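Weekly sync, protein design subgroup
Attendees: M.S., D.O., the rotation student, P.L. (late)

Item 1: inverse folding check
M.S. brought a backbone from last month's batch and wanted to see whether the design step gives back something sensible before we order anything. D.O. pointed out we never logged the input encoding, so this time it goes straight into the notes. Structure tokens as presented (377 positions):
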């Protein structure tokens, strides 16, 4: 902890971040232990669900809890106290459980086989069903388990957040933000499903639809609401919340656009997801919309023959990737990520009423979440 009134150094900020991560992990472990004890009263098999969830959470970068924490620090003009860090960490742990639930269900919806470099939960459960020689469909069992465990994680997130209490008006404001987070991410998930099915008719065009999905599926639970939860919990006024919101929308959008690029030009070992996964899953991304707009009839025919085809060969996927690059779509999306990252920096630099530790912490997180310079070219 730095002396009172002294500016925090880079080392101080990293230490604060480390303490936050350590506390989130400890809170999560304690909460899961309590849930395991409860489920053990039902049966050994239900208790094992907690072990499955713990394994699933392992390896996460805790990006969302960190946005929550540094949003709280931004609302303060000083380093958070231990009690403040505890409150922010508990909300961060709750947000991470929402994240887990969303990913479990999203992988089922998208038929994604891999998550964080490991088999997706529904795939792993299907394998366990098969190895145990249980009756019925292994695939159906895996899907059912992912739905049930996702619902449990969402329920436990609600209970964890409900236990965070500070000054009553701040508690109530943070709780409203948490409620909005869950409503918005589920609404965004629906828009994603609808867009994949070609039914998002109120959107102007394919790119507008993809951007709307980002705005309501990714932005709220990745950056916007976590930052606002932390800031509201630490007493931010409406002016500060509005400035943080403008910043968060730019960062969250850039984050997802960058993630779309990773499916084409990323490193599978770094991403933990198979390269080409978005093509096989038929994800209607901004990158795909720009490729379709920039290419000719032959290019569009190629995309139509590959996008959403689970039987697409590696060679076909590579052809689609090459088209995304040669059409200029990859370069265009990368440029937009840079532009949004620059806009976010300008918003944060010009924001008033924000503490310097929080400003520095948010800037560091944004740089990490929007980096495209390290991607292959």
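Designed sequence read out in the meeting:
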């Amino acid at each position: 902890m730095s002396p009172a009134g002294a500016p925090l150094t880079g080392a101080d900020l990293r230490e604060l971040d480390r303490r936050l991560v350590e506390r989130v992990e400890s809170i999560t472990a304690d909460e899961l232990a309590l849930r395991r004890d409860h489920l053990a009263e039902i049966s050994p098999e239900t208790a094992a669900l907690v072990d499955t969830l713990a394994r699933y959470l392992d390896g996460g970068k805790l990006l969302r809890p960190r946005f929550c924490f540094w949003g709280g620090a931004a609302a303060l003009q000083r380093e958070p106290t231990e009690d403040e860090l505890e409150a922010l960490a508990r909300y961060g742990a709750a947000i991470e459980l929402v994240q887990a639930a969303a990913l479990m269900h999203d992988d089922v919806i998208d038929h994604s086989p891999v998550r964080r470099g490991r088999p997706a939960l529904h795939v792993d459960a299907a394998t366990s069903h098969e190895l145990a020689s249980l009756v019925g469909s292994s695939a159906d069992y895996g899907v059912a388990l992912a739905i049930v465990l996702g619902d449990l994680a969402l329920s436990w997130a609600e209970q964890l957040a409900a236990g965070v209490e500070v000054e009553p008006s701040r508690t109530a404001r943070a709780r409203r933000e948490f409620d909005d987070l869950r409503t918005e991410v589920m609404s965004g998930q629906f828009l994603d499903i609808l867009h994949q099915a070609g039914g998002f008719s109120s959107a102007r065009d394919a790119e507008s639809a993809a951007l709307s999905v980002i705005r309501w599926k990714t932005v709220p639970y990745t950056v916007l609401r976590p930052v606002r939860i932390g800031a509201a919990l630490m007493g931010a006024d409406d002016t500060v919340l509005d400035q943080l919101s403008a910043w968060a929308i730019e960062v969250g959008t850039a984050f997802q656009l960058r993630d779309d690029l990773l499916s084409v030009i990323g490193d599978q070992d770094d991403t933990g997801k198979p390269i080409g996964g978005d093509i096989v899953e038929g994800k209607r991304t901004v990158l795909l919309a720009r490729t379709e707009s920039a290419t000719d009839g032959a290019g569009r025919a190629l995309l139509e023959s590959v996008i959403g085809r689970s039987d697409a060969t590696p060679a076909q996927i590579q052809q689609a990737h090459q088209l995304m690059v040669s059409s200029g779509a990859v370069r265009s999306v990368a440029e937009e990520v840079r532009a949004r990252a620059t806009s976010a920096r300008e918003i944060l630099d010009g924001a008033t009423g924000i503490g310097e530790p929080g400003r520095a912490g948010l800037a560091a997180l944004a740089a990490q979440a929007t980096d495209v310079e390290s991607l292959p070219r």
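Discussion: The first strand starts at residue 114 and ends at 115. The two ends are 41 Å apart (CA to CA).
Action: P.L. to compare against the previous round before Friday.
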